[in-house]
Amino acid sequence: MKRRLLILLSTLFALAAISLVLIQISQTRRSAKMSDNLFNISVNNAIDEVFNQLDQMKVEDYVSQKERYRLLQYRRIDDMTEKMQDIIRNNSELFYDDRRISFGVSTQDSAIALPNARLSLSEEHIITQYNTMLNARNRMLANIGTPKTGKANPLDINNVIEASKLNFPLLDSLIREELIINGVDITPHIGILMTETDSLLYCSPGANPDNLLNSAFKYSFHPHGIASSQSLYLVLSFPSSPIILSSDTNLYTILSICMIILISALFFFSIRTILYQRKLDEMKTDFINNMTHEIKTPIATISLACEMLEDESVTSDYATRRNFINIISNENRRMRILIETLLQSAKMSSKKFSLNPKEIDLNSIVESCVNNFQLTVQNRQGTIETHLGNIQGSLFADDLHITNMIHNLIDNAIKYSEQPPRIVISTRTENDHAILVISDNGIGIAKEDQKHIFEKFYRVSTGDVHNVKGFGIGLNYVSQVVSLHQGTISLESEPGQGSTFTIALPLS
Fold it and tell me: Average pLDDT in the 451-471 region?
């Protein structure tokens, strides 16, 4: 897939994902706003219904038990006063005739027959009945501590009950019940606010007075039978946010967010896989090209040598014939090493691959590999130095793969050196490990390439060094050999400053 198409697809998906997120946020906010409005409507409906219930109740039904007794006493006094007034109205010729009846202190305070007044038995009974009721009313007034006045304000039922004497548990119960009926399952804190003093006449247990004073849920409170010198308001405070989303809305929101995250993860994983496959395809193409070139060169050389050997003028000379035979042999060995390296790398990638460990002498293997490269290094006017220390312990390893590993590292040190190679190889024992260090003065490896150099088919750009050949499997093979021996390999390198490979193999 072309790079431009990948960028276009990534951009389109990013825009689509952002759009989905914005739409989801907008929908969530809209749902929250609708839920908030529905919550407010439900609370208002519940409080309206509570006030309706209070208005339908008798006053004594929603006052405290103590005040209920006083209220009943006032009602009895009021009823008795009305009966006394009915007696006077129905017998006006008796009570308003000052020749027969007089009143003690003031009008309707007491009824006394005048001297020499002639009253019938029924009239005397009416006066006695009136005075009996008057005495009973005065006793009741005395019991509740009210002045003995005729139609005083305390007898007015609307001035008897005060808000401080309400049955607040009943009020709390009514409010909670109506809230549940209207779909609000949050228990509120309740208070009665006096606006003139900006204080609470009542506050439900556990409520925060500041929350009640600042609450937006405020309703004018004046059920019948309540008279107060101050304006009263019923206030509600909810302990949690009133924005209550339905369970379906919450579920859909969470599922939408999870789906967006999942789709985004799958998309980026797919893009990463495509890029990785593209990289592998490029590496495979480079590998095939390099391998074709590597094999083509010795084949061409062998073919040319064979043609020369077919010439009788050449074959008659033993030295010349021997030279061409050596060329064919060297090129054949070169192809065999190439194929062997590929086969060994393929075997190591297989789960069935196993080592053949035995006790080896690391220093001897290093010396053998150095001897094999001495002529090549000298032809380039370079040097190989060795500083071999005493390995204190037994190293069990596969000598073939250890030899190939060292061979690869020395070969790379020579190939990737623009100037005469200077290679230093040292061994030592450290923390029950045999340490092998190979340093060179080559072109070095950049930081961004160092984390990839042990990957199969990965090749570092060589810049101006155009004569370097390879397949990108040498260091991968080295890494696999070290890993199979349960060792570690590290690299220190700077561009233009050479490279140092450090290998640690465990000792028995």
Answer: 63
